[in-house]
Amino acid sequence: MYRVFEALDELVTIVEEARSVPMTSGCVVPRGDVLELLDDVRDAIPSELDDAQDVLDHRDELVSKAQTEADKNLTDARSEADKTASEARAEAEQLLADARERAERIVSEAQAEAEQTITNGRREYEDYVSRAQSEADRMVQAGRAAYEQSVYEGQSEQSRLVAETEVVQEAHAESKRIIDQAHSDGERLRSECDAYVDSRLADFEELLGRTLRTVGKGRQQLRSPMGAPFDYEDWQSAGNGSSGHDAAGRAAG
């Protein structure tokens, strides 16, 4: 490229210093020198200019080829995107179906366990009531027997000590005290039994309330469009509560 600029400068100098033709704007230049400089310019022009000219000559073909390649790449990209979206949609539907199936299974198990808990609670309540009634009857029977025994002993003692008024009064007082004690013990036992049964029923009521709330939350999540994951912590806390109540019941028993 330096030689090109030098040759052009020399051509300019030759033209500027050339002898003018009278009565015209032309000039006389040495043909050989000018042709030699032009040959130098032609030889010094880089080959990249020819390559650039070739590119310009074939630019329409190259642009068309590039456009075709770009369209093909775009079509392939769209096909791949559609395939990926379809696979993702299928996987999401499968995950949703699995989640709904699991939620339905958990709700079904919760309902079954709630029903079993209610049945066990009723059975245990009836057992407690029956045992309490039996114990109360036994205490009343024992009190009545003690009363009758005291009356009999009092009558015998009265007959033996009919003249001793103070002894007779003490016997009546003792028999009355024994009878009152028997009735008091029977009432106290019945009250304690009722309080224990009431506390057990309150525990069962709390457990059933938590279980029903858990079942309701699971059903509500199933009715939602994209149900949130089931809250296993509430379910586990309800199960732990059930285990705690059972342990309390065994300890009390």
UniProtKB/TrEMBL annotation:
Query: Does the keyword Cell cycle feature in the UniProt annotation?
Result: yes
Per UniProt, the keywords (alphabetical) are: Cell cycle, Cell division
Which domain of life does the protein's organism represent?
Bacteria
Q: Where is this region: Disordered?
A: 66-92, 217-253
Q: Which GO terms describe its biological process?
A: cell division
Q: Which residues form a coiled coil?
A: none
What residue stretch is flagged as signal peptide? none
The reply to whether DNA-binding figures as a keyword in the UniProt entry is no
Spell out the protein name for this chain.
Cell division septum initiation protein DivIVA
